[in-house]
Amino acid sequence: ADASLSVIDRASGLVTVTHSLPPASSPHGIVIDVVNQIAYVSLEGTGEIAKVDTATGAVLSRLTVGPWPRHLAFDPTRNRLWVARFISPDPAGEVRAIDTTTFWLDTTAT
Fold first, then answer.
1. pTM for the whole thing?
2. Residue 31 has pLDDT above 80, yes or no
């Protein structure tokens, strides 16, 4: 199935533009780095996080984080993107941290 990211006008509630994402990527979570105009999108179907330019909608980079990434939290003061998985390996849950300055995996917490 096609995957996309749409921009919605808050005043009207109308979609102003739609950007394509990788096929069958199943986008789920999104957080915005307002200062750097970057959107981070969890691609549950491919096990990746996409780094998207909010001005153009271009996918700047994709980072593999493991199966089923869903929920995201962004800490701009520490330049960290936290990624929770829908299904974590046994015996505990898993949260991965991405350094947003390098867009590379930093740590994994269980």
1. 0.90
2. yes
